[in-house]
Design goal:
By secondary structure, this protein is mainly alpha-helical. It has a domain of about 180 residues: MetI-like fold, CATH 1.10.3720. It is about 75% helix and about 0% strand. α1 packs antiparallel against α13. It is globular and about 85 Å long. InterPro entries: BPD_transp_1_N, MetI-like, MetI-like_sf. Keywords: Cell membrane, Membrane, Transmembrane, Transmembrane helix, Transport.
Amino acid sequence: MWKTVLRRVLIMIPEVIVLSVLVFLLAKAMPGDPFTGSIGPHTSAAQIHQLKVQAGLYNPWYQQYWNWVVHLFHGNLGTSFQYQEPVTRIIGERAINTVWLALFTMVLTYAIAIPMGLYAGRHQNHIGDNIIRVYTFVTMAIPPFVILLIALWIFGYVLGWAPTTGSVSATASGTMGTVLSRLQHIILPGLVASLTGTVNIVQYLRSEVIDAKHSDYVRTARSKGVPTTNVFRHHILRNSLLPIAAFAGYSITGLLGGSVVTEMIFSYPGMGLLFLNSISYRDYTVITALVLLYGLLNLLGTLLSDIILTAVDPRVRVQ
């Protein structure tokens, strides 16, 4: 197993290099610049030109890329043009908010989806299964941003049960007060995001359970007189959860990357909202850092999924 992990890590090195070049070139190919219109309405063209020269935006792309890579290996991702702060500090502050929301969403998603998928597959065509299927079809048919907007309007503005912006209340004091305030801010977006994220897991798990019920090893176990509960627990359940475990790594790293739609609608200051604002302001340093981070998370998600699948499936370990 460790040889496989080491081999995958070595393969990731050239992938990261190619990704960094593409990310840097695509960011530089964006129209506009970070200075025009952001300093003041009366800023002259000569002043903007001087700022571009100081920022090195007129240097050849390969020179800019080399300087960026050298600074990257020294832990310096540059300074944000928009916030005038180090990019590492900005991403670090937003990453804390994203991790809170991601963990809450992920736990809720699997806590809701797995029991629903198992119940629907075990009780196929019963009334409970039909209700779950209607729920998944309706949730899949409605775009997630529509559900988020409706939830924000009802529970945030009409009922006033949840905050509508931010990650921590300005009046929160002390460690416990800050933690409670964070939870209060992530309950509504995390709950709605988890409900919209359960659809694929529920449908996939339901199909796996139904297929497993009609498999040869299940029929053999039942013919030997094994109780139905034991057959479901020891045979159907374990094999049905294997595909879900295989995609767990992608789910974790995808949530850690931040949800642009959720964070934008709830004005939640995470990495997703930071990425959207950086594109609007042509903040190249933040854009390149975030896209590179998302690419690394995607590669790590692939590796993590393989490790999880190896841990839960002995057949993969044998191979």
